[in-house]
Amino acid sequence: MPSLYPHAAGLGWPGEVRARLKRAGRWLRGALVAACLMLGAVQAWDSPRVLQQAGRMGPGTAARAQMLIQEIAEAAGQPEVARLRAINAFFNRQVLYADDREVWGQVDYWASPLETLAKARGDCEDYAIGKYFSLLAAGVPGVKMRLVYVRADMGGAVQAHMVLAYYPEPDAEPLILDNLVTDIRPASRRPDLTPVFSFNAEGLWQGVGTTTAGDPTARLSRWRDALMKARSEGWW
């Protein structure tokens, strides 16, 4: 499969796409700086605040948030791969896949972790976002994780999809956390996925391909909003 490795960035991209992603990268860095200025310095997650915010969203949300916090606490003392398995399993078990139009009445909505728990439903972005912030809370360094836009081959039909990739080392083969395939597999065992671009709270990277999955800037504006919502909930 095309590589999901960081050193693959820049391969096979026409000039126009590279330029658009470069502009999107500059935009994202600026947006993140602005978000940090507005929200204050980034701190460790605040589990009492998470529970407080969850309680305001109803008893069901509070109960699921309590279960997640317990899962995070138990996972935090384990090796990183065990943390990945615990959080990946939690979201794949607790959240039922549903389209944004069905859940939110919008074509594309990126939910915060508590919004996803409140609905107990979500699409691929919501799974990836929830896992990302939960693993941050469990002590997995953010530099080791990226949300990756991919083209997923669904039995001959290709559709846009998002997964969470974990890199044990900067140049290592990543492990893929996905809601389509519930067990965590190395990227080489996911030939159904073709990466497009990836990002986290620190930046934007090019994937491998010839076109992007829509306008990166438009999509990353939703990521900026998700970061701010997660911050207000106490996740980072």
Describe this structure in words.
- This protein has helices at residues 15-39, 47-56, 59-76, 80-94, 100-103, 113-119, 124-137, 216-233; strands spanning 96-97, 121-122, 145-154, 157-166, 175-177, 185-186, 193-199, 204-206.
- It is built from eight helices and eight strands; from the N terminus they run H-H-H-H-E-H-H-E-H-E-E-E-E-E-E-H.
- The chain has a six-stranded antiparallel beta sheet. The chain has a two-stranded parallel ribbon with strand order 1-2.
- Residues 5-18, 31-42 and 208-216 have low confidence and may be disordered.
- By secondary structure, it is α+β, with helices and mostly antiparallel strands.
Summarize it.
The protein is of the alpha+beta class.
Strand order of the largest sheet: 6-5-4-3-7-8
Helix fraction bin? 40-55%
The unreliable regions are 5-18, 31-42, 208-216
Integer-rounded radius of gyration: 17 Å
**Number of strand elements:** 8
- What structural class should be given to the helix and strand makeup? alpha+beta
By CATH reckoning, the class would read Alpha Beta
Briefly note the CATH topology name.
C8orf32 fold
Question: What would the keywords be for this entry?
Answer:
C8orf32 fold, six-stranded antiparallel β-sheet, 17% strand, alpha+beta, 236 residues, 8 strands, 8 helices
